Amino acid sequence: MEKLIMIKYGELFTKKDNLKLFIDKLYFNIKNKLSDYDVTIEKNKVRMFIDIKNNDEKIIIDKLKEVFGIHSIVVCYKTEKNIESIYSLSFDILSKLKFNSFKVETNRADKNFEFNSLEVSKNVGAYLLKNINNIVVDVHNPDLILNVEIRKDFCYIYTSSSSIKGLGGYPNGIQGKGLLMLSGGIDSPVAGFLSMKRGVILECLYFDAPPHTSMEAKNKVISLAKILSNYGSNIKLHIVPFTKIEEEIYKNVDPTYMITIMRRMMYRIAERVANNIKAKIIINGESIGQVASQTLSSMFCINNVTNMPVIRPVSCLDKLEIIDIAKKINTYEISIMPFEDCCTIFVPKHPVINPNLHKCIGLESQIEYEKLIDEAVNNIEIIDVNSYEFINCDLL
Ligand code: ATP
Ligand code: MG
After folding, report:
1. Are residues 118 and 241 in the same domain?
2. 271 CB under 6 A from ligand 1?
3. Is 246 in the pocket of ligand 1 (CB under 6 A)?
4. What is the extent of the structural domain holding 345?
5. CA distances (Å), 348 to each of 184, 219, 333, 352, in order?
6. What percent of the chain stands above pLDDT 70?
7. Which of 110, 145, 165 is the last residue of a domain?
């Protein structure tokens, strides 16, 4: 039996005009993902087939589970396109499995095949009933479905139990670049993951404020970026020295407005970096109402410093929904490590929840922020997260 892994594309079908582009991108991403393994990959308009040769099936499937644009991953068997071969392969597959009831579903892409779909299903079903003891057909609620796909050159057969859900979404890279404001928290890595799911390539931006924030906090962000890079390509992390700006805000600004002003500075810097790296959007982990700086009035005031689109993928999710995703994508355990980030250092007792834009502008005139922003942007450290090695760090 010739065993293959079949990739179903899912949502890509909705992109008729760009289908070739999408499939080529997915093919490229899968090839990249499996570059350490000796496999061959064939693609056509509806399916991809991977011959995994002597590689461990589980390892390859786990890798494929991290690739966006895959609807499902199916272990299937290939045979010649004639009814006798289909009978014999169906028997070989089902005779090894334990089940009571089954049904056969046929998809006949090649309309010249000698039997239509219904006839194939009926004939294969009858053959199996005759040759395997103690099984019955149940078309409504079977224990197992045997799928027969008759395509241009070959026929592919698999069972419902051998289909694994993929990540879905669009192939990473199909949409160009976005800049993710990545803190060490739970929300921003999830926001990054969700934007990657729509095909966005990420670079990340972290505001670092030593000595108020620790090396561990920075390492945590690097680890999170490393995890995100598993779902796409290598990620560049831009680390902004933010201490001076924070200290100026702390010295000069009404404490209730400190966070609002700090976030306006972050957005200004994010816009500058995004322009420098040719990213078209800023992405962050803000969620409506979660904290004082994320009320609608706060978002209005903070967003006012940039015209660049700010995408907030988790803006309408509950914290528990965000946590659920964080657990699935393996960022949660790192996010909950207890290191302060720069937003939690200067938390005022009563941050404003309805900030006034004119007041923000007035308060900012007390700080020479343009100069400070220039200095911060000019001193950004850029890390290639894939090749970054932690030194003296037991935690991550
Ligand atoms: P998260 O759990 O992602 O940190 P949060 O609930 O802590 O989010 P805030 O601290 O208010 O929320 O920050 C909102 C968003 O602003 C974050 O999700 C992130 O996108 C961005 N952000 C906050 N702090 C930083 C930082 N130090 N560096 C980069 N981005 C940051
Ligand atoms: Mg945070």
Report:
1. no
2. no
3. no
4. 176-384
5. 20, 26, 28, 9
6. 95
7. 165
Section 116-129 average pLDDT: 97
Count H helices, E strands: the chain? Answer: 14, 15
Query: What separation in Å is there between the alpha carbon of 185 and the centre of ligand 1?
Result: 6
Which of 11-15, 172-176, 237-241, 337-341 has the least mean pLDDT? 11-15
Residues 149 and 271 in one domain: no
With a 6 Å cutoff on the Cβ, whether 315 touches ligand 1 is no
Please indicate, yes or no, if residue 171 is contained in any of the structural domains: no
pTM for this predicted structure: 0.93
Measuring from atom 25 of ligand 1, which residue has the nearest CA?
A: 183
394 falls within a domain? no
Q: What strands lie across the sheet with 236-241, from one edge to the other?
A: 310-311, 281-283, 177-181, 201-208, 236-241, 381-384
pLDDT at 338: 87
Half-sphere exposure of 84 (CA within 13 A, CB side): 0
Residue nearest to atom 17 of ligand 1 (CA): 285
pLDDT at 344 over 70: no
pLDDT at 14: 65
Q: Which ligand places an atom closest to the C-alpha of 237?
A: 1
Pocket of ligand 1 contains residue 195 by CB under 6 Å: no
Same domain, 282 and 342: yes
